[in-house]
Design brief:
single chain, 74 residues, mainly alpha, 84% helix
């Protein structure tokens, strides 16, 4: 969870910087910096959980079949 929080802080900063650079408006930059990364951070957390579940399923299947599988890319 710490990794997710640090990612969110970095993402807020980037989102604000890019939006402010494009619009010159602090309010729009702040709004985008709060909304977009917050949604993206939740998506990232869900994405990580799905990949972990897929990794475990693959590991369970190969363990039962006695074979080896190629690992999922990190």
């Amino acid at each position: 969870m710490i990794k997710t929080i640090s990612f969110a802080i970095m993402h807020f900063s980037v989102a604000f910087g890019v939006t402010y650079a494009l619009t010159g408006d602090v309010i729009i930059g702040s709004t985008v910096a709060l909304v977009e990364p917050a949604v993206n951070t939740v998506g990232y957390h869900i994405h990580e959980r799905v990949w972990e579940r897929l990794r475990r399923r693959r590991s369970d299947r190969t363990g039962q079949a006695g074979g080896t599988a190629m690992p999922l890319a990190a």
